[in-house]
């Protein structure tokens, strides 16, 4: 669909849907604050931690709420893809954590070093002990470049190695290399890790965007694109995976399945992949590396992770997938990327998880029961070209759950979905941090 196809009636429908959602949200927040002396610690002040602090500050009166995070800068991570593709400058994704900390919430600028859910306390890196009645863990995840032999973040921007995940500067440096490749051509290698990861659509988006840039910048006929998937699919939702497979085929992007990047040799520009048959070497002119991702050590070394299976190895928290409440420690919740649930690990999931977890926490304080349930909602605006995207939204059961049914078709490449990703998403995200969306 071209811009002109999205007519006035469609815009009105979209606005009406937005207004209905906003009025539901404001009704939910209209209840009088609950008086309490509860001590609440929130570990991590990223998307989920800040949104949790905002919600709790609105709903509670008299609580002692402490956010613990050393990071001063806040990163709008969904924008990293845009920076890495030369669509936005690096400063588009940077703001200050302090500007989102709600009035009445204390921000302790340290990291959590230990979590002791038996003793209801956390210990910070400086040795400070914080006792709590409720703990919300929102530490996100940790990028583990070091688990790829020969790789470290300092290599991003050199030897044809890009990685948009490592932050604004890395994304900007990756754009420098990708742009060069898009002009000169060569062999482009695109990877994703075998662990759980945040925004599992980003490796695909970045491949599409690189191919589109090469087409626009003249290098396409001299370029080869190979996407290496860690398993036998391209995306966890089968219908989306199939759609991407068809688009890759149309655009002559080759796919290699069951390939996991294990080592890189920057000098020789050789990447080693683990395959079901052994190892295999691939050369690159441009490589996009997405590292393995694990829970941060403070969580991994605590009793909070799952105790069996891959989620135990990677350290994701053992929470109930509907309520985000810890299965063994009922006064502990896990929201955002740290939650060991079958879908999620997007800012869009945070938007739906936080109201549910905070509703249960507030109900506990009141001695009541909440019936709020998170259904696994995850959204991925899958950019396929500059000016086009598919707004893919789904739940735990792999049902497609479009927010604007009849207006935005989930598996169509649309200009309006591109507008959502490049213009509407950031204001919505900022509203979420402030507890208003
Ligand atoms: C390249 C890329 C593209 C993406 N695209 C999209 C998209 O299009 N749509 C979408 O919805 N989502 C997208 N995401 C995912 C989204 O940004 C994350 O899912 C979201 O930020 C998760 O929020 P979080 O609070 O769990 O983690 P974060 O926002 O990462 O915050 C975690 C915070 O915890 C802190 N922390 C870590 N360890 C400790 C500790 N021990 N003690 C105290 N604090 C700690 C960190 O400093 C950080 O501030 C993308 C992410 C990336 C990287």
Break the fold down into its secondary structure elements and pairings.
Layout: H1 8-29, E1 34-35, E2 39-43, H2 47-59, E3 60-61, E4 64-68, E5 73-75, H3 80-84, E6 94-96, E7 105-108, E8 112-116, E9 121-124, E10 129-131, E11 134-137, E12 142-143, E13 161-162, H4 168-184, E14 186-190, H5 202-217, E15 223-228, H6 238-250, E16 253-256, E17 260-265, E18 270-275, E19 278-283, E20 286-288, E21 293-294, H7 297-300, H8 310-314, E22 332-334, H9 347-366, E23 378-385, E24 388-394, H10 415-433
Parallel strand pairs: 1-3, 2-4, 2-11, 4-7, 11-22, 13-20, 14-15, 14-20, 15-16
Antiparallel strand pairs: 5-6, 8-9, 9-10, 12-21, 17-18, 18-19, 23-24
Bound molecules: flavin-adenine dinucleotide (FAD).
The site of flavin-adenine dinucleotide has 36 residues, from α2, α3, α9 and β23.
Molecular structure report:
- The protein is built from 10 helices and 24 strands.
- By secondary structure, it is an alpha/beta fold.
- The strands form 8 sheets. It has a 5-stranded parallel sheet with strand order 7-4-2-11-22, covered by helices on one side. Strands 13-20-14-15-16 form a 5-stranded parallel sheet.
- Strand 15, helix 6 and strand 16 form a beta-alpha-beta unit.
- Helix 2 packs parallel to helix 9.
- Mean pLDDT is 94; it is low at 1-9 and 14-28.
- The structure holds flavin-adenine dinucleotide.
- Flavin-adenine dinucleotide (FAD) binds next to helix 2, helix 3, helix 9 and strand 23.
């Amino acid at each position: 669909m071209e811009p002109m196809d999205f007519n006035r009636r469609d815009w009105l429908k979209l606005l009406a849907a937005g207004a209905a959602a906003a009025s539901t949200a404001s009704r939910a927040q209209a209840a009088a604050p609950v008086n309490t002396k509860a001590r609440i610690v929130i570990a991590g002040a990223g998307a989920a931690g800040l949104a949790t602090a905002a919600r709790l500050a609105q709903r509670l009166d008299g609580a002692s709420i402490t956010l613990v995070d050393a990071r001063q800068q806040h990163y709008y991570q969904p924008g990293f893809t845009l920076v890495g593709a030369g669509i936005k400058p690096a400063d588009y994704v940077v703001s200050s954590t302090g500007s989102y900390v709600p009035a009445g919430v204390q921000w302790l600028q340290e990291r959590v070093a230990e979590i002791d859910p038996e003793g209801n306390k956390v210990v910070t890196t400086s040795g400070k002990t914080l006792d709590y009645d409720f703990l919300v863990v929102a530490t996100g995840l940790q990028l583990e470049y070091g688990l790829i032999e020969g790789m470290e973040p300092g290599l991003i921007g050199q030897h044809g190695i890009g990685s948009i995940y490592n932050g604004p500067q890395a994304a900007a440096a990756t754009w420098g290399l990708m742009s060069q490749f898009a002009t000169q051509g060569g062999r482009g290698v695109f990877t994703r890790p075998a662990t759980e990861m945040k925004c599992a659509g980003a490796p695909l988006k970045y491949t599409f965007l690189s191919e589109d840039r090469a087409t626009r910048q003249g290098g396409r006929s001299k370029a080869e694109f190979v996407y290496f998937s860690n398993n036998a699919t391209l995306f966890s939702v089968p219908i989306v995976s199939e759609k991407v497979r068809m688009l890759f085929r149309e655009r002559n992007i080759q796919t290699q399945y069951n390939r996991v990047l294990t080592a890189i040799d920057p000098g020789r520009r050789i990447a080693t992949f683990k395959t079901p048959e052994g190892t295999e070497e691939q050369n690159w002119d441009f490589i996009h590396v997405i590292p393995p991702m694990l829970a941060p050590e403070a969580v991994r070394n605590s009793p909070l992770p799952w105790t069996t299976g891959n989620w135990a190895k990677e350290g994701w928290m053992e929470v109930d997938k509907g309520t985000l409440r810890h299965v063994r420690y009922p006064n502990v919740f896990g929201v955002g990327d740290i939650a060991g649930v079958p879908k999620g690990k997007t800012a869009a999931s945070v938007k739906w998880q936080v109201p549910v977890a905070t509703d249960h926490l507030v109900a506990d304080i009141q001695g009541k029961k909440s019936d709020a349930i998170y259904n696994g909602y995850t959204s991925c605006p899958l950019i396929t070209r500059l000016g086009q995207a598919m707004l893919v939204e789904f739940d735990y059961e792999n049902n497609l759950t479009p927010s604007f049914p009849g207006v935005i078709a989930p598996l169509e490449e649309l200009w309006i979905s591109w507008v959502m990703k490049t213009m509407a998403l950031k204001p919505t995200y900022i509203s979420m941090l402030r507890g208003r969306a």
